[in-house]
Structure to design on (593 residues):
């Protein structure tokens, strides 16, 4: 063996290494795919498969615990003739639109107020974020009690200020119920905006403000022409994130109003839940949930394209 | 910092807005606390001052802990949150490391895919997933939620870590590679120990998201013994049209405390994760 390899040593220009599993697995592409295989398989099984299975379900008449029959687009046609469905579409857009604007404006205000140096700043910032981290269901139950018409704080304060007894029925009146869920969603999401924008504000170089001040810019002009342009990308990305998860909100409405009164606060997610889980019509429920897809897909594409441009 | 403002201007520009936001943010928690220690006679009296408590009592807490399964729910919630966070961190690292560090064909596209999947909200998937869980015969087991929570947490952790990994300089890994370390050794021995802050950020976030989850738990867990706190509170403490507000508020407060405590220890990491622009709102 020793002699043979010596005899061939001169002939081989580049001695080829014998195949080894170890060095194969160390090649960049192979290593990457081996490493990513478990998470990718998991996502394919529990996100990818349910997603396409949901599309399949939406084309079936599928009572719970029974075999389904293929009905094509019948569920979507049924949906289009359902006045409640259109009410749900309108509710979801109103809820998402108004809550997003409130969170954006309020969050900007919070960020500007917090972007000054003062004592206890870090503790105050931590406390301001509490609404965002505490489980939504639990804080929503607290609001449910605060809005109790007879015995709780909101109406007792209103009555003491001269509003006729017993005060408004916050969750019993369609318009007031919508206002309530919008305000509570704003309460929960505003700190997210505020703290993220605050981090953005802290990246604005003070020289820019100094230069603007020397050039004679007023406070408003500094905000409009220095602060806003620098914050704009952060505002955009935070807003897109917030819109997606407000649009698909479930917990808050399920707990507070369950979509009532008379479907006045029903959103896509709660309506899909009522049909799919409540009445056990999995096919129709899946169709209602899928009705969210066009708007969501548009938003997701916008965000991912934007992130790609930013990362590139 | 020299602001150049007098005390009055400082009050108007700083303390008024900050205290207003603080008041709004904390009022519901004050209301939870004060309600939970009020005797029923004060709770349902129109004469007593609603903003204060005159004869505080722990009765609601005693009732909550002795007559309901609240402690079981708390245990379940913790168990599920810890395990699903651990799974998600491990899978998230496995997904993010090659995407952030190794230049292979398709890496860019996959990274975009991770972001897109992270943005898919639960309500789009819950009906088909319910059917899947049923067919796997996992209904009413904690396994059902331990398996499904990572569907939102893995893309989330991967996305957050991807951003974090890119900020770590390459030199140490390159040196290790030149010294003959394999890719796996480089990742485990050299790279991952550098990233502890990123793991804490991602972990603390995943943990709060898991504690907050409601939809899957509501659908998959219908027995008292397997419920989590949010589902238990909504399904069992609200009995028909009768509301036991004292007990409910005690439960809401106690259910919020573990998250708040863990959060308070890691606030800086949490804010760092939040501001990396990778967070649901």
């Amino acid at each position: 063996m020793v002699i043979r390899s010596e005899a061939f040593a001169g002939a081989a220009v580049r001695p080829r290494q014998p195949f080894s599993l170890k060095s194969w697995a160390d090649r960049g592409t192979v290593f990457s795919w081996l490493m990513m295989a478990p998470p990718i398989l998991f996502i394919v099984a529990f996100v990818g498969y349910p997603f396409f299975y949901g599309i399949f379900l939406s084309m079936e008449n599928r009572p719970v615990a029974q075999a389904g029959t293929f009905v094509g687009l019948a569920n979507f046609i049924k949906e289009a003739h359902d006045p409640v469905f259109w009410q749900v579409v309108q509710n979801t857009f109103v809820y998402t639109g108004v809550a997003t604007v409130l969170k954006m404006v309020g969050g900007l205000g919070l960020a500007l107020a917090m972007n000054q140096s003062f004592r206890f700043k870090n503790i105050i910032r931590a406390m301001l974020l509490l609404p965002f981290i505490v489980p939504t269901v639990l804080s929503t139950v607290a609001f449910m009690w605060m809005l109790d018409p007879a015995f709780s704080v909101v109406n007792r304060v209103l009555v003491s200020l001269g509003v006729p007894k017993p005060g408004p029925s916050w969750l019993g009146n369609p318009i007031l119920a919508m206002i309530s869920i919008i305000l509570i969603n704003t309460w929960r999401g505003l700190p997210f905006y505020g703290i993220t924008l605050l981090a953005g504000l802290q990246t604005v170089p003070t020289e820019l403000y100094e230069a603007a001040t020397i050039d004679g810019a007023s406070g408003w002009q500094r905000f409009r022409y220095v602060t806003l342009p620098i914050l704009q990308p952060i505002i955009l990305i935070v807003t897109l994130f917030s819109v997606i998860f407000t649009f698909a909100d479930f917990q808050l409405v399920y707990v507070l109003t369950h979509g009532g009164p008379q479907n006045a606060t029903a959103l896509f997610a709660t309506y899909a839940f009522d049909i799919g889980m409540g009445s056990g019509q999995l096919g129709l429920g899946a169709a209602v949930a899928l009705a969210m897809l066009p708007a969501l897909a548009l938003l997701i594409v916008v965000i991912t394209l934007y992130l790609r441009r930013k990362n590139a | 910092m020299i602001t150049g403002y007098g005390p009055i201007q400082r009050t108007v520009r700083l303390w008024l807005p900050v205290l207003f936001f603080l008041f709004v943010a904390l009022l519901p928690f004050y209301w939870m606390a004060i309600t939970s220690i009020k005797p029923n006679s004060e709770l349902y009296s129109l004469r007593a001052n609603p903003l204060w408590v005159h004869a505080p009592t722990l009765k609601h807490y005693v009732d909550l802990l002795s007559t309901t399964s609240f402690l079981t729910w708390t245990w379940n919630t913790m168990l599920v949150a810890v395990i699903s966070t651990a799974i998600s961190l491990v899978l998230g690292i496995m997904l993010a490391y090659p995407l952030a560090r190794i230049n292979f064909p398709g890496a860019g596209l996959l990274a975009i895919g991770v972001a897109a999947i992270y943005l898919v909200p639960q309500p789009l998937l819950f009906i088909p997933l319910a059917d899947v869980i049923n067919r796997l015969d996992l209904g009413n087991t904690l396994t059902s939620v331990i398996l499904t929570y990572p569907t939102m947490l893995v893309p989330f952790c991967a996305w957050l870590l991807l951003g974090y990994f890119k900020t770590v300089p390459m030199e140490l890994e390159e040196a290790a590679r030149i010294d003959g370390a394999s890719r796996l050794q480089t990742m485990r021995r050299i790279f991952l120990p550098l990233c502890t802050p990123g793991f804490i950020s991602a972990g603390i976030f995943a943990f709060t998201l898991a504690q907050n989850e409601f939809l899957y738990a509501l659908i998959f867990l219908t027995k008292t013994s397997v419920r989590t706190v949010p589902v238990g509170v909504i399904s069992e403490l609200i009995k028909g049209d009768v509301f036991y507000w004292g007990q409910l508020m005690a439960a809401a407060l106690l259910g919020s405390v573990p998250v708040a405590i863990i959060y308070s220890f890691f606030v800086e990491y949490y804010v760092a994760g939040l501001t990396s622009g990778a967070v649901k709102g």
